[in-house]
Specification:
Elements lengths: L1 H23 L6 H17 L8 H25 L2 H24 L8 H20 L4 H29 L6 H28 L2
Helix pairs in contact: 1-3, 1-7, 2-3, 3-4, 3-7, 4-6, 4-7, 5-6, 6-7
């Protein structure tokens, strides 16, 4: 587990560099192609992992691209809600993620049974997000959607840490497990940021 956490921390640092690149280097016209590439890489990582383990190079390239594509979201909330809201969202995400991770690591309970429930929940979130493209949700609906997102990705942190504790991690699976934690953290951050952004707009 320590090797996974170190790799995860490095992935976050690389994503931050990617976000800075998105702010100062990457032209706006590249964001959509990079989002498509990010999606394709994510699908390949999880659908073809049985044939070939995810490599460290793949992980770091993915998190760098993910950091770039995260920039437009962060920039939107910086302009509409302010740096304080973005900073609070990141701090809150760090506290929630760390607290749940410590609990899962210390708990004697095995939370791997949550896998099926979480998969169903994330499929529902994807379906709602697609619906939102064509029929935008109200601010109240988006707030409820974001709270559900916090619960789901908090559950994934619990699930992933518990699975590593109880079943261990093979050396070749370290990058994939770090990728799981990275996705948990980023999606938790986006959900919390959205909540704080909506609440700040109501003040």
């Amino acid at each position: 587990m320590p090797s996974v956490l170190r790799t995860f921390a490095l992935s976050l640092a690389i994503a931050f560099i990617g976000t800075m690149a998105g702010a100062f280097v990457v032209p706006p016209g590249l964001f959509m192609p990079l989002m498509i590439l990010e999606f394709v890489m994510l699908i390949s990582a999880f659908f073809f992992r049985r044939k070939k383990a995810v490599s460290y190079a793949f992980l770091y390239i993915f998190t760098f691209i993910s950091g770039i594509t995260l920039y437009p979201i962060v920039a939107y909330y910086l302009s509409t809600s302010g740096a304080n809201v973005v900073g609070m969202a990141f701090a809150s995400t760090t506290v929630v993620f760390t607290g749940i991770a410590i609990y899962a690591a210390k708990s004697k309970h095995n939370f791997s049974f949550l896998g099926g429930f979480l998969l169903a929940a994330i499929l529902a979130l994807i379906a709602i997000s697609i619906y939102n493209i064509f029929f935008p949700l109200s601010s109240t609906g988006m707030l409820a959607y974001s709270f559900i997102g916090v619960l789901v990705f908090s559950g994934y942190v619990l699930f992933d840490i518990s699975r590593m504790k109880h079943y261990g991690v093979r050396a070749e699976d370290v990058p994939l497990m770090a990728l799981n934690l990275y996705l948990d953290f980023v999606n938790l951050f986006i959900s919390i940021l959205r909540i704080l952004g909506i609440l700040s707009s109501r003040d």
